[in-house]
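Review this chain:
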Amino acid sequence: MTKIIEIDDNNNSNVFKNSSLINAVSVSLKEGEEAFADAVFEQMENNTKIILDFGGGNDSKKGLKIIENFDVDFTYVIPVGNSLAQSQNAIDTYNLIKNKNKVIFALNQISDPSNIKNEWCFWFGSKELGLESIEAKLNNPKIIYIPRSPLFEISALAGLTICELADFARKIENPTQLFFKQSKGDKTIFKRLMAKHSQAKAAVRYVDSILPILNDSLGQQSNIAVISTKGGVGKSTIAWHLLSALES
C-alpha cells in the first residue's frame, strides 16, 4: 500500500475514492507535519511507501521544512511543463532542495518523444531561436518523460488510478462473452462494458510502456516527494497515477 499525503492549502486532488492501491489524505500546511509523522510511523510499522504531493508556492517551501524535521531519505521529483515560465519554475524549485543528487525532473505531457528536443525548446534550448538550455544550466540532471494521455482523466473519473484501470483488462478473459452475460440482454450496458474494456486495454499499453522506464530511472524508492513552486504542472497526475505503482 502507498500512503499519499497532499499538502496544499488551496486544493484537494483526492478523487481516487475507489482505489485499493493508495491510501490518501489531503491536508493543510498546518496539519501537514502531523500527517507526515503518522505516515512515517506507519512506514516503520508495515513498510508503507510514502509519496508527498506539495502544492505550489509557500506550500512547497514549508513542506520541505517538514521533511527536514525527520531523518527520512527522500527522492524529489520536479514536474516540468513545456513553457519558459514552467522551465524557470523548475529551476526555482530545484534551488529550494538541499540534496541536489536526489532530484529528478519529470517532463510532463509530452506529445511526441521522438521530437522532444525541438518540441521542448525552452528546456533543451534552441540556437535558432536564441534560447539558452535549461538542461545545460542545471548540468544535465536526471530526467524522465511522461507522455500525454487522456487515460489519466478517464480513470480518475472512475475513482481509480490509470494502473487500476489497466487491471480491469488484465483480469478478464473472454470479455465479450462475460459482458454479454452481465448485460442481461441490455445492449446499452453491453456497449458500456465493452467501451470500458477498450479504455482498460489502452491503459495496459500505456502503463506497460512507462512503468519499466520509471522503475529503472527511480529505482526502488520508499519515499518520494513531488514538488513544484507553481501549480498546473501535473504534480498529482505523476504522484497519484504513476509513482504510487512503482516498486519499493
Q: What stands out?
A: The chain has a mean pLDDT of 87. The longest strand covers residues 103-110.
